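Minutes, project huddle
Topic: does the predicted pose make sense with flavin-adenine dinucleotide bound?
PN asked that the exact inputs be recorded in the minutes so nobody has to dig through chat later. Recorded below.
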Amino acid sequence: MLSNWSGHQTCDTPVLRPVGTEGVRSMMRQTAGSLRPAGTGHSFTPLVPGADTVVAPMPRYGPPVSAISGALARVDANAPLHALSKALDGSGRAFRNLGDINVQTLATATHGTGATLPCLSAEITAAQLVTADREVVEVPSEDLPGVWVALGLLGILTEIEITTVPAYNLRRRVGFKPVADLMGTMQDKWADHRNYEFFVLPHSGKGVAIAHDLSTDPPGKAPMDLD
Ligand SMILES: Cc1cc2nc3c(=O)[nH]c(=O)nc-3n(C[C@H](O)[C@H](O)[C@H](O)COP(=O)(O)OP(=O)(O)OC[C@H]3O[C@@H](n4cnc5c(N)ncnc54)[C@H](O)[C@@H]3O)c2cc1C
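Predicted holo structure (tokens), as shared on screen:
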């Protein structure tokens, strides 16, 4: 049984967990009916339930980053973002932007914040897809925007090439503020900070503001997570 993060999206269909491109392809050859890929189940909406079979590809064995050439990194599309970040950091590289959590897989079109920063999918420069007719295709560059946020409709992404940036440090600031203040200052905050977002806490009149900015300070001890 598949259940998403909150437990509000569930389905009883079988979940298959193939490893790597060949694993996905041979598994697809053995299934009939409709099929839906799944990442780590953090979508709030019913994106995955409903198919005859759910495929949750596992990260392939070995390093999740297979090649780095300048700014471009060829990576396992089904590795979690935290594993990819760690592997990229080992080569002095990093994702330009990330979301609030990093347990999702790269294939799932996760976005971050930042008025001038692209979402993760917009950094994709090449992609390998196992299509519904069980073929492994390298997506032609002119078709790439179609797979950036395809959410499984065009097939199962198995490898992705993504633009990276030199590794960097961020300073994180978190604070509670009245919602009226948050609404009144958000345009300025988006301009002032590399990343800025806030969450309204219903019925409290307050919200949590989170800002991230580049820092040249060495990494400090991670603060206690008060989420
Ligand atoms: C606490 C929390 C914080 C969150 N913060 C953010 C955030 O900051 N930014 C953000 O964007 N979202 C955020 N989300 C929402 C969620 O994380 C995103 O929607 C994320 O992209 C889902 O990823 P997943 O790995 O859980 O994929 P799933 O929910 O399992 O699947 C997402 C979609 O991707 C498709 N898919 C999965 N694998 C493949 C594949 N190999 N090939 C093709 N398609 C595939 C699925 O079919 C589905 O349509 C958050 C969720 C939670 C619970």
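Observations noted during the meeting:
- The two ends are 28 Å apart (CA to CA).
- The chain has a mean pLDDT of 93.
No decisions taken; revisit at the next huddle.
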